[in-house]
Amino acid sequence: MSSGRAVVVGASHAGVQLVTSLRREGWSGEIVLVGDESALPYQRPPLSKAYLAGKCSLKELAIRSEDFYVKQDVERVTASVQEIDRSAGELVLRTGNRLSYDALALCTGAHPRRLRAEGAELDGVHSLRRSSDVERIREDAIPGRNAVIVGGGYIGLETAASLRSLGLHVTVLEAADRVLERVTAPEVSAFFTRIHQQEGVDVRTNASVEALVGDTRVREVVLASGESVRADFVIVGIGIEPTIEIAEAAGLVVDDGIVIDAHARTSDPDIVAAGDCTSQDIPRYGRRIRLESVPSAVEQAKVAAATICRHDKEVAALPWFWSDQYDLKLQIAGLNTGYDDIALSGDLTRDRDFTCYYLRKGEPIAADCVNRPRDFMTTKRMLTQATAVDMAALTAEVAV
Amino acid sequence: MAMVTFMSHDGEQHEAPLEEGSSLMQVATNNAIPGIDADCGGEAACGTCHVIVDPAWADKVGRSGPEEEEMLSMNPERQPTSRLSCQVKVCESWDGLTVQLPEFQM
């Protein structure tokens, strides 16, 4: 099938790649991209970095220019989808209008996890996922003010770096005993704590939030320990949850994300899905994983488009991630889940560059590379090709 | 309008207009040029927008910076005039520019 109307729900990285790839795979019919934000689809990773720091406009973050959608004959529709009527082959929009489809792709993404604490609904409490969130934060981000960030994950730390660059006082509250606890080795957590402290951030661990206090607007954050932290505003960055409601209501199998196979097909083989909303068996790791990553969204979208056009393609690329904080460029190749050892190159207690290799039974499975693009590319290539590795050579200090 | 030609590994040619101030990667993605993946959207983080600039144009386009150099150094298809196209800001005066695409983006 390569004609009729293909509808892609969700206009972010996965959705935009999907419409791009549909044309490349030969879809000659209509393509409709439905999104609930009116701006041109934009890149999300810079929201907590360059966009928050005021270094770029939303227009500069457009994934594709306006012209692209015209030339590729892709119709953009701004609407929220209420329901998928599978038997009719139609989407029901929140306006009540219906949109029929011959092929359907779900790229519904994810939304920020809500803080379960008293006062979480006060004014001045923000999450950070959409451009409109950042625009509200920027109104609050006046130099000299006190920003409290709940969550010491990548979003929290990137946000801390951006707010410091704007001249705010920043406190990061992490409930676990170290930042990045879920995703990196303790040595790497210690590295990022040191850097943020050197940059003037008050990093507090074992700090769970008991309540946010204020009349209509947040004024302070009270911790479980009884301590309180002054806050002119609060940013909650405690993770994201996949947006699966319409898929679940339509009877698709959902398990921490819309379950897809290697061809990006959902439990209904006529519906594909891609991006942060999905969860997928990854043979490389021997289990089902929901990846929160642009490269993975793009890879799944390419496969989903091929599947719609009845071409045989499977998701195979190595997962990878990146983060920017201050002058640090972190690039992560692979997933470190299940590592039993690490090997370090560089002095994490002193330098601003290093690589942390994660090993399992002596074999490297992932690497965190800070300001070491060469190590990142080497590791990405090595893990992709599964070539034999000499770890001693990798971690040897070489003057380059 | 000033045009750039992207030449694929197997000799296929795709032309796109050079829009002043855009990156060469944006020119490619906005015109759906096959062979430029640009997974990271222009952060020099992924290395999937590798192009090889026609040597005759190399001085005008400029050489790779140190960070770019590190990203490219491991690439088996790397050539002396290799660039990450996200790091190249294009000029309308570059009409006729030709760049080669590698067989694989990695």
Automatic annotation (TrEMBL), chain A:
Cofactor(s) the protein needs: FAD
Cited InterPro entries: FAD-oxidoreductase/Apoptosis, FAD/NAD-bd_sf, FAD/NAD-binding_dom, FAD/NAD-linked_Rdtase_dimer_sf, Reductase_C
Start and end residues of each Reductase C-terminal domain: 320-395
Keyword Nucleotidyltransferase found: no
GO molecular function: dioxygenase activity; oxidoreductase activity, acting on NAD(P)H
Domain FAD/NAD(P)-binding: 6-301
Keywords, ordered alphabetically: Dioxygenase, FAD, Flavoprotein, Oxidoreductase
A GO cellular component entry from the record: cytoplasm
PANTHER family xref list: APOPTOSIS-INDUCING FACTOR 1, RIESKE DOMAIN-CONTAINING PROTEIN-RELATED
Protein name in UniProt: 3-phenylpropionate/trans-cinnamate dioxygenase ferredoxin reductase subunit
Protein's organism: Nocardioides alpinus
Taxonomic lineage: Bacteria, Bacillati, Actinomycetota, Actinomycetes, Propionibacteriales
TrEMBL record, chain B:
GO annotation terms (biological process): P450-containing electron transport chain
Cofactor(s) annotated in UniProt: [2Fe-2S] cluster
Keyword Transmembrane: no
PROSITE patterns associated with the record: 2FE2S_FER_2
Molecular-function annotations in GO: 2 iron, 2 sulfur cluster binding; electron transfer activity; metal ion binding
Family note: Belongs to the adrenodoxin/putidaredoxin family.
Ranges of residues in domain 2Fe-2S ferredoxin-type: 2-105
The keyword Iron belongs to this UniProt entry's keyword annotation: yes
Region (Disordered), start-end ranges: 60-80
Coiled-coil ranges (or none): none
Protein name stated in the entry: 2Fe-2S ferredoxin
Highest taxon of the lineage: Bacteria
Keywords, in A-Z order: 2Fe-2S, Iron, Iron-sulfur, Metal-binding
